[in-house]
Structures are given as structure tokens and as C-alpha cells.
Write a structure and sequence with these properties.
Layout (H helix, E strand, L loop, with lengths): L7 H8 L6 H4 L8 H22 L19 H23 L2 H4 L3 H17 L3 H20 L1 H17 L3 H14 L4 H28 L3 H14 L4 H31 L3 H14 L4 H31 L3 H14 L4 H24 L8 H14 L7 H17 L3 E6 L5 E4 L3 E5 L2 E6 L2 E8 L6 E7 L8 E2 L7
Parallel strand pairs: 1-7
Antiparallel strand pairs: 1-4, 2-3, 2-5, 5-6
């Protein structure tokens, strides 16, 4: 033959990929596998870098006859069709890497069908028809690429709507579409997990509702808690759990208040306080708790006063006036208007003072052997008069002091001996002069006796006189010459 010409059949044969069918282009789950992704990457690279060489004009030898073109089809048309096919295959390879087969329906299958039709037309050298099919396939993929975000939004909305209706299968499928378009999409990832747990969530919700119907609030709470733990965003579980928790709170609060009021009526302040503390924990600030607590405080005050009243009565009966004073003061600290305490405190303080005055003399009896203390003791006895019948300790002290004063006022015979030359003086009593023997009647006490004589040193002696115990005769004479 003459000069070599381009053969459309040869070029198409070299250009065409293996025969495709719609079934082969259908989405398959195994495209997610890494091995398939690697193969698709190699395919894309082959299309991008090898295709231009494959679809370029082929110079035939003189031995091959020039193919017959369909009317109106020319080599120029064929070349343009090949460029369209190249664009289609490049876009398809890129979308294949994006797993478009899993989310691009119906665009993906329709594009594959049109490309297959174009392949048949190209093989028949009907380039114009092939170009129309390839262009349609390209436009389908372009439309698919452009609609990617819309498809994602639509699939996400459909998935969330299905999940809200507890259509787990549909929700899972649509969430998977979203994840195929955008792997690790937050809402889709979360939604897919929710769809995976929704069956278990619904089972727990049904168990909770059944338990709630049977008034088994604890079992209902446990079931709703399980549902909420499985899906923290599942609003019905949170709502049901809050409702049952509220019912349990009201039930336990009412039970605590019932125990508190019963304890208050029985005067059991300890049990009432414990029950009110529980009620306060369940419903802080509740007015019923506040009113009951005020009542409890009143009971506690009265109980405390009654206890102190009993204690102070025991102290008064035993004439332990110091203890009584302390108890009366405690009562007034609880209730300053407590009449028994204010009146009793005044009497107790007077008795403390009175007992201290008696003890002043009885603890040191020698005090009354002096004139002034003796007079004071006599005044004390006159003021105290007689002790009430219910104060035997005071009566005993009065008797003891009266006896002490009586003995202190009873003279004791004292014998003094001298030499008839010494002048003797008993201080605070009188001068006795010179004598050999003299007897005196002296009240109990300590006396100083001084003897003097001209030319001699004075002598000074002390004699102790005690009730009922006459001292031994005392010799008073001056013996040391000056």
C-alpha cells in the first residue's frame, strides 16, 4: 500500500481496557482493602503516564490495510475521542482511589455503562458515537465529583434520621457512605458507633420500662443507666433515667420525712436528726425539712434543759452548790429565759458564798480564838440562823461553828507561878503585879506574859489556851541579873 495511515481499530484496540460490564463496575466492600487501593493507585498512574503513549497515532506498515471509517468519522474525530476517553479514565482512576464505587451511585454505574457503550462504538470505528458516550461518561463522573459534598450531607441526614427512628441497618449503611466519602468524619464515626449499640440500648430501655411499670424503680434505674452508658447521646435514655432518679428521690425523701416526724412525735431527737439529715441531702432547702428541723431544735433545747434540770436537782439535793452553779449557767446558755435557771443560779451562788464563810472558820478553828474573828463568826451564825431541813450539810456546819464559837467563849483556868518579886503582866488582859501563885480565867487563845524586876532581865513567855484543855502551870520570874 502507499503512505502509512492511522488505523482507528488498531488504536482503539491498544487503548481499550479489558472489557467492562456494569456488574464489574458495581461497588464492592473489598475495595476498602489496602491491596485493592494499591492496585487502583497503580492503575491511576498507568492511565496518567502510559495512556498518552498508548492512544497516540500508530504508524502501520505497508502490509496493513487502512481501516474503513464510518461516514463522517475521521482520524481527527478519532483523536478527539481518544482525548475524551483519556480524561474519563484519569478522572475515574482518581475517583476510584477515593472509593467512589461505594458512594457514587447512580453516577458511577451510569458512567461505566456509557463508557462501555463508547468502547463498542469505538471498536466499530464509529468515533462520533463513541465520543458522545465517552463525553457522557465523563460528565457523569464530573457531576459525581462536584456533588460529593451534597451527597455527604444528604447521606448524613438520612443516616441520622434513620438512627432517630431506630432503623439500625439503614443508619449504618448511610453512615458508611459518609465515611466512604470522608473517612473519619466525626459525626458519621460517632453515629456508626451509636447505630452499633442501638439494639442493646433499646433492649435496656424495654427492660427499664417494664421495671418502671412494675414500680421496681431500682431495676429501672439500672437498666436506664446501662442504656445511657452504651450511648451517652441517646436522649430517651437520659430522660428516662432522670425521671426515675427523680421518682426515687421523692420516694426516699418522703420516707425520710415520715421517719423524722415519727421520731419527733416520740421525742427521739437522735433518730429525728438522722432522718432529717437524709431528707436534707435528698432535697436541700426543702421547707418541710426546715420546719421539722426548727421543731427538732426546740425539742433538743427542751430536752437539754430537762436534762440539766435533773442534774441540777441532784446537785442541789447533795448540796453540791458549785456544780449547781455550773449547771444553771449551762441552762441559761441554752435558753436565757429559763426561769428555773436564773432563780436557781442566784440561790446557788448565795449558798456557795455561805458555805465558803463557814468553811473559813471550820477549816482553821484557831481563827475564832481571836476577838475580831470570833465576833465575825458570831455575826455569821446570827445571819445564817437555822438551815432548811433539806440542807443537812449546812445545818451540820452551823452546828459545828456554833459549838466552836461556844467553846471559844468559855474561859479556861490558867495557873501562874512566880517568886513574889517579879511583876507580871498578861498582855491584852491586865497587870497582875508580884505574886507567888495566881489563877486566871482566860478565853481560848494565845497569850503573851511578861515578867519584870529591877536589876534583872525581863522574861517573856507565851501560853496557849484551848477549850477544855487547861494548860500546865506556868512559872514566870526574872532570874538573870543585869
Amino acid at each position: 500500500m502507499g503512505a502509512r495511515q492511522h488505523s482507528g481499530v488498531t488504536d482503539t484496540t491498544a487503548l481499550q481496557p479489558p472489557a467492562r460490564s456494569p456488574a464489574a463496575d458495581a461497588p464492592a466492600n473489598h475495595r476498602w482493602l489496602w491491596a485493592t487501593l494499591a492496585a487502583l493507585l497503580l492503575l491511576g498512574l498507568a492511565v496518567i503516564f502510559a495512556l498518552p503513549r498508548l492512544v497516540g497515532p500508530v504508524h502501520e506498515t505497508a502490509d496493513i490495510a487502512e481501516p474503513q471509517l464510518a461516514p463522517g468519522d475521521t482520524a481527527v474525530v478519532r483523536d478527539a475521542v481518544q482525548q475524551t476517553l483519556q480524561s474519563y479514565l484519569q478522572l475515574r482512576a482518581r475517583l476510584d482511589l477515593d472509593n467512589a464505587a461505594a458512594w457514587g451511585e447512580p453516577y458511577w454505574s451510569e458512567a461505566a455503562a456509557r463508557a462501555t457503550a463508547g468502547d463498542r462504538h469505538f471498536a466499530q470505528h464509529r468515533f462520533t458515537a463513541a465520543g458522545a458516550d465517552y463525553q457522557a461518561a465523563l460528565e457523569q463522573l464530573q457531576q459525581l465529583d462536584a456533588n460529593r459534598s451534597v451527597m455527604l450531607t444528604t447521606a448524613l441526614a438520612e443516616a441520622e434520621r434513620a438512627l432517630a427512628q431506630n432503623d439500625v441497618d439503614t443508619a449504618s449503611a448511610r453512615f458508611n457512605v459518609v465515611l466512604a466519602i470522608e473517612p473519619e468524619h466525626p459525626a458519621a464515626t460517632r453515629g456508626l458507633a451509636q447505630a452499633g449499640s442501638r439494639t442493646a440500648v433499646l433492649e435496656n430501655m424495654n427492660s427499664g420500662q417494664a421495671a418502671e411499670t412494675n414500680s421496681d424503680l431500682e431495676a429501672a434505674r439500672g437498666a436506664y443507666q446501662q442504656a445511657a452508658q452504651l450511648d451517652a447521646d441517646y436522649e430517651p435514655a437520659r430522660t428516662a433515667l432522670a425521671r426515675v432518679m427523680g421518682e426515687i428521690n421523692v420516694r426516699d425523701f418522703n420516707a425520710a420525712m415520715t421517719r423524722a416526724l415519727a421520731a419527733l412525735d416520740a421525742g427521739q431527737s437522735g433518730a429525728a436528726g438522722t432522718a432529717l439529715a437524709e431528707a436534707e441531702r435528698l432535697q436541700p432547702g426543702d421547707t418541710a425539712v426546715r420546719d421539722a428541723r426548727q421543731r427538732l431544735q426546740g425539742i433538743q433545747v427542751q430536752s437539754g434543759l430537762n436534762s440539766l434540770r435533773r442534774q441540777v436537782a441532784a446537785s442541789v439535793n447533795s448540796e453540791d452548790w458549785l456544780s449547781a452553779v455550773e449547771l444553771y449557767r449551762k441552762a441559761l446558755a441554752i435558753d436565757p429565759a429559763a426561769g428555773f435557771a436564773s432563780t436557781g443560779l442566784e440561790r446557788a451562788q448565795e449558798r456557795v458564798k455561805l458555805h465558803a464563810q463557814f468553811d473559813h472558820y471550820l477549816d482553821t478553828p484557831d481563827r475564832v480564838y481571836s476577838a475580831v474573828p470570833l465576833a465575825n463568826a458570831e455575826q455569821l451564825l446570827a445571819a445564817a440562823s437555822e438551815a432548811p431541813p433539806d440542807e443537812p450539810r449546812l445545818a451540820k456546819k452551823i452546828t459545828a461553828l456554833r459549838d466552836l464559837v461556844a467553846r471559844a467563849g468559855t474561859p479556861v483556868t490558867v495557873t501562874l507561878n512566880s517568886d513574889g518579886l517579879t511583876s507580871v503582866v498578861v498582855y491584852r488582859i491586865r497587870r497582875l503585879g508580884e505574886f507567888n501563885t495566881k489563877q486566871l480565867e482566860l478565853l481560848p487563845g494565845d497569850y503573851t506574859i511578861v515578867g519584870s524586876r529591877p536589876g534583872y532581865r525581863d522574861v517573856r513567855k507565851v501560853i496557849t489556851v484551848r477549850p477544855g484543855m487547861p494548860p500546865l502551870p506556868l512559872l514566870v520570874r526574872c532570874e538573870e541579873v543585869i
